[in-house]
Amino acid sequence: MKSFLSTVDYTRAEIQGLLDTASELKAAPVSRALAGRTVALLFLNPSLRTRTSFEVGAFQLGAHAVVLEPGKGAWGIEFEQSVVMDGDAEEHIIEVAGVLSRYCDAIALRAFPLFADWQVDRQDRVIRTLAEHATVPVINMETIIHPCQELALMRTIQDHLGRPDNRKFLLTWTWHPRPLNTAVANSALLIASKFGMDITLLVPDEAYRLDSQFMDAAAAQACESGGSLEVTTDIEQGYSGADWVYAKSWGALPLYGRPAEDAELRAPFRHFMVDGEKMAMTANARFSHCLPLRRNIKASDEVMDADYCVALDEAENRLHVQKALMLSLMGNKAG
Ligand code: CP
Fold first, then answer.
1. In Å, how far are 60, 64, 181, 199, 313 from 232, measured between CA atoms?
2. Which of 21, 63, 113, 202 has CB 3.0 to 4.6 Å from 121, enough for a Cys bridge?
3. What separation in Å is there between the alpha carbon of 50 and the centre of ligand 1?
4. Is the whole-model pTM more than 0.90?
């Protein structure tokens, strides 16, 4: 039984297999390949794209998706091991994992970090504990990484650029009113490096560098794939010659859990928003974002409405790649 917790656990060839299957499923979306199968979708945080694409994808393959929102329509869950459960949670992840494994063929989880202590959150313990106690595959629907988004991003890059090797991938930090999760940024590094892209990480200040576990993993993967990874605070250097511009906002890890201090640090950097002037510095790059996106905060209307903006293609590809993933983990292509 293999779970899908991180693309780091998969080879480039294995990921490419999923991406190829996704293209086949886009051409022939409806089948009975997973008839009688069930996936549980546990959401500890809100979602539009992830929930819809998993539910629709399961339906199109003849499977059924059960959506659970612990603490709302389902009992609150305790994730810490060996604790006296005298708080709000009514049941432990050990029993949740065991019960859902008896009913379902896979369990998917969205569990954002808690934004209190990065040394704790960086261990990604919630999904790892679920995977430890489940007896069916576990799918990461976003924790401190977002591997499903990675698949959609790479499918979209290949759809538009063909082979991604040594194409310049700019990951640019953007301003946002709140310090956000680093998950999509971490994931962008992981997938672009696995596929041999030349990555430039553009940040306004060294404090916005990403966690060393992802920087190191991306550097190692780039070394293996023939790609590269550089970090800059220079906007012109970042955009110059880029083939792909990927934008995301995230909080400064040294100020994790201290949002007021982070707000003060990032206040001078609203000009990191992606706009037409910056896109004009690129090599006719495509622009994409995982969505949701605040217009005229992260990217201008001009960018979002341009032909080079492929954010909706990436959102659509969430559906195709996750169907490929469910087929791989819950069944096979026959049927
Ligand atoms: N990109 C993404 O995961 O969107 P949702 O948060 O709406 O699921």
1. 43, 46, 21, 11, 28
2. 113
3. 5
4. yes
Which one of 3.30.450.40, 3.40.50.1370, 1.20.1260.10, 3.40.50.2000 gives the CATH number of domain 7-145+318-329? 3.40.50.1370
Report the candidate in 212, 208, 154 with the shortest Cα–Cα distance to residue 22: 154
On whether the CB atoms of residues 155 and 219 are closer than 8 A, the answer is no
Q: What is the SS3 assignment for 318?
A: helix
From atom 4 of ligand 1, which residue's Cα is the shortest distance away?
49
Tell which one of 41, 42, 44, 48 to mutate to probe ligand 1, the residue whose CB is within 8 A of the most ligand atoms.
48
| CATH architecture type of domain 149-314 | 3-Layer(aba) Sandwich (3.40)
For residue 72, with 0-12 CB atoms within 10 Å meaning exposed, 13-18 middle and 19 or more buried, which class applies?
Answer: exposed
Question: What does the radius of gyration of the chain's CA atoms come to, in whole angstroms?
Answer: 20
Q: Whose CA is closest to atom 1 on ligand 1?
A: 290
49 lines ligand 1 (CB under 6 A): yes
- The tens-digit pLDDT sequence of the chain (335 residues) is 799 999 999 999 999 999 999 999 999 999 999 999 999 999 999 999 999 999 999 999 999 999 999 989 899 999 998 999 999 999 999 999 999 999 999 999 999 999 999 999 999 999 999 999 999 999 999 999 999 999 999 999 999 999 999 999 999 999 999 999 999 999 999 999 999 999 999 999 999 999 999 999 999 999 999 999 999 999 999 999 999 999 999 999 999 999 999 999 999 999 999 999 999 999 999 999 999 999 999 999 999 999 999 999 999 999 999 999 999 999 853 43
